[in-house]
């Protein structure tokens, strides 16, 4: 049977860094990723041949460096991890039947996805998450629209509009739900600048690009609805208070053909939940977060977790968490006697200090979950509205799911579960189900082992 010392699920920053570190420690490493190319969301590689990698910028080059460093591992793209049972993991590579592999150590590094935000019109064509827009730009070099409005919060609200403008998009405005920086925020960032100078330089550069292009950056404003016939034609936004709740009478409407949303990320937790890992909850890191120890071990023996899938902290933290996880696995398996982990931990401390300095400005307010009106569809897969969810009259997400079917569709709640939980007043998620990703029945069905001749 196919077996690995370390099997990694996820080919983003954490997974690639772990693959490189694990292979260097002498482990037999396998890495699976459901996408065609490696790099994850932040370092997503184009789906075509690139002759001059420098032309695609610094982020692309950092991704290439990670991929090349991990090249000693066995890379399996277009491959889904469907189930986990002890050391056995069920994998399904595109075009092939599912197979079971054995992993002495399993690292879950599935990353995160854009935080879905439900408001009237969010299902219209032309409403994109930042991740969706990045996929178009990075992998296909296609602009998502001609005249865009970007709404969100966090460092991405500076970075991505500036990048889109650099690609030739017209940006009507950038809306940041959080407050503008104050003197105290600047002082905290300056105090945490050691080891984070590149992040500060990037922020200054992106802000300067917006200023030069005369793209308005407006703080404490949030999208309240999108309207149009067949696609987005206009977006209405409004001022919000410190909790991101809309202030009546402050609405403004702008004509655009694309709305790009970047309200942060939520961890992809399907596999850790299927594995039985213990969870905590931290809204600032995306909601449900996997509990890990100093070597990124989870509560389940033999299972580790690293990167944004354990709580969103950015690509730099993900890389070093991946390294720690691989070193921890190598120590546990006896491949190495000791690990020089002090530099890694020092970098993580500095990165987390910088993130803490930004917390006041980018804290997610509860108002983000209150934008949907009664007839707004919250669960897109099953067309379940906010009114139907609230009419269930329960704070138990399992009962609500049974009554309304919210979360039973193709995405299995990835797009609606946090929103649904907030509407009914809980942080609990529904019980995870196999398989972890949608898959054709023929991929997991066994060939018949009995004689069918009598039915002919």
Number of domains: 3
Helical fraction equals 25-40%
- Shape verdict: globular
What's the count of strands?
21
Question: Looking at this structure, what is the CATH superfamily of the largest domain?
Answer: FAD/NAD(P)-binding domain
Instruction: Determine and state the CATH class of the largest domain.
Output: Alpha Beta
User: Based on the structure given, which CATH architecture of the largest domain is correct?
Assistant: 3-Layer(bba) Sandwich
Largest sheet: 7 strands, mixed
CATH domain topology of the largest domain: FAD/NAD(P)-binding domain
**What is the CA-CA span between the terminal residues?**
36 Å
Could you tell me the radius of gyration in angstroms?
A: 23 Å
**Oligomerization state:** single chain
Treating each run of at least 4 consecutive H or I residues as one helix, how many helices? 13
| Strand content bin | 15-25%
Poorly predicted runs are none
Q: Quick check: average pLDDT? A: 91
Which class best fits the helix and strand makeup?
Answer: alpha/beta
């Amino acid at each position: 049977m196919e077996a690995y010392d370390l099997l990694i699920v996820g080919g983003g920053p954490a997974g690639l860094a772990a693959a490189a570190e694990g292979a260097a420690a002498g482990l037999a490493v396998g890495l699976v990723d459901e996408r065609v190319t490696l790099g994850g969301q932040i370092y997503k590689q184009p789906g075509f041949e690139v002759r001059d990698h420098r032309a695609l910028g610094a982020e692309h080059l950092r991704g290439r460096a990670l991929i090349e460093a991990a090249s000693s591992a066995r890379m399996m793209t277009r491959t889904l991890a469907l189930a986990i049972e002890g050391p056995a993991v069920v994998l399904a590579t595109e075009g092939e039947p599912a197979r079971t592999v054995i992993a002495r150590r399993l690292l879950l590094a599935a990353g995160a996805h854009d935080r879905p935000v439900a408001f009237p019109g969010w299902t219209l064509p032309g409403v994109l998450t930042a991740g969706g827009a990045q996929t178009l730009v990075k992998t296909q070099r296609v602009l998502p629209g001609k005249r865009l409005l970007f709404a969100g919060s966090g460092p991405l609200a500076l970075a991505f509009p500036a990048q889109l403008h650099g690609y030739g998009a017209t940006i009507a405005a950038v809306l940041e739900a959080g407050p503008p920086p104050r003197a105290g925020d600047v002082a905290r960032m300056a105090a945490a600048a050691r080891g984070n100078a590149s992040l500060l330089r990037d922020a200054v550069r992106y802000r300067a690009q917006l200023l030069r292009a005369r793209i308005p950056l407006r703080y404490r404003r949030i999208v309240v609805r999108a309207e149009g016939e067949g696609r987005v034609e206009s977006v209405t936004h409004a001022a919000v208070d410190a909790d991101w709740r809309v202030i009546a009478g402050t609405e403004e409407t702008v004509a655009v053909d694309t709305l790009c949303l970047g309200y942060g990320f939520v961890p992809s937790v399907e596999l850790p939940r299927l594995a039985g890992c213990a969870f905590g909850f931290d809204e600032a890191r995306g909601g449900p977060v996997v509990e890990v120890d100093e070597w990124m071990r989870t509560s389940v023996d033999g299972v580790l977790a690293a990167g944004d899938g354990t709580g969103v902290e950015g690509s730099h933290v993900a890389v070093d968490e991946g390294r720690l996880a691989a070193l921890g696995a190598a120590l546990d398996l006896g491949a190495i006697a000791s690990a020089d982990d002090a530099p890694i931990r020092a970098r993580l401390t500095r990165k987390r200090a910088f993130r803490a300095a930004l917390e006041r400005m980018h804290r997610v307010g509860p108002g983000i979950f209150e934008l949907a009106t009664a007839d707004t569809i919250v669960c897109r897969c099953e067309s379940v509205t906010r009114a139907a969810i609230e009419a269930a009259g329960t704070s138990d997400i399992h009962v609500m799911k049974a009554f309304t079917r919210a979360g039973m569709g193709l995405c299995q709640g990835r797009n609606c579960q946090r929103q649904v939980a907030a509407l009914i007043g809980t942080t609990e998620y529904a019980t995870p189900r196999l398989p972890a990703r949608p898959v054709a029945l023929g991929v997991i069905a066994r060939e018949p082992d009995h004689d069918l001749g009598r039915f002919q």
